[in-house]
Design goal:
The protein is mainly beta. The chain is built from one helix and ten strands, in the order ββββββαββββ. Strand 1 and strand 2 form a beta hairpin. It starts with 16 loop residues before the first strand and ends with a strand.
Length: about 150
């Protein structure tokens, strides 16, 4: 019903989110994908174990790259400027914060990508007979992923 506030009964919709690239203002992306993290198992079996199966312990963590897509605007070159800051062995790393928002604009889930930097940037494809919006994408590598529900 109109005017109701999100409660614990229904999951949050995924279309209302914001992305902040370091100290810059929020950048309006239309899609964010690749927010995943995993822990590699270490298998171990000591010599006098009565079981013929190894035990599994948590090992090193691993995060993938995040891909973000957005429309191209006339005076907006933030992604290309960030990508062009990569020089031989020098990278301007940033903290990328992705907020999943409720209907009032308050963050309900926050993904923080530590020491992030762009590994790949892709401009739009061009087609003379198309009528789609021009979209660019950036792939971001990062070292740590923290998830919080404020």
């Amino acid at each position: 019903m109109a005017g109701e506030v999100q409660d614990q009964v229904w999951p949050l919709p995924k279309f209302y989110f914001s992305v902040k690239l370091g100290d810059d203002d929020s950048v309006n992306f239309q899609e964010v994908s690749g927010l995943d993290s995993e822990t590699r198992p270490i298998e171990y079996r000591h010599g006098n174990s009565p079981s013929f199966y190894p035990i599994k312990m948590p090992g090193l963590g691993k995060v993938g790259n995040v891909t973000m897509r957005k429309g191209i605007f006339v005076t907006d070159s933030k992604l290309w400027n960030w990508y062009n800051e990569i020089k031989m062995n020098t990278i301007k790393r940033r903290t990328v914060v992705i907020n999943l928002l409720d209907e009032t604009g308050n963050p309900k889930m926050v993904w923080t990508l530590g020491n992030a930097w762009p590994t790949k940037i892709t401009g739009t494809d061009l087609k003379s007979e198309g009528n789609e919006v021009a979209v660019e994408s950036v792939e971001v590598a990062f070292e740590t992923l923290t998830v919080a529900a404020p």
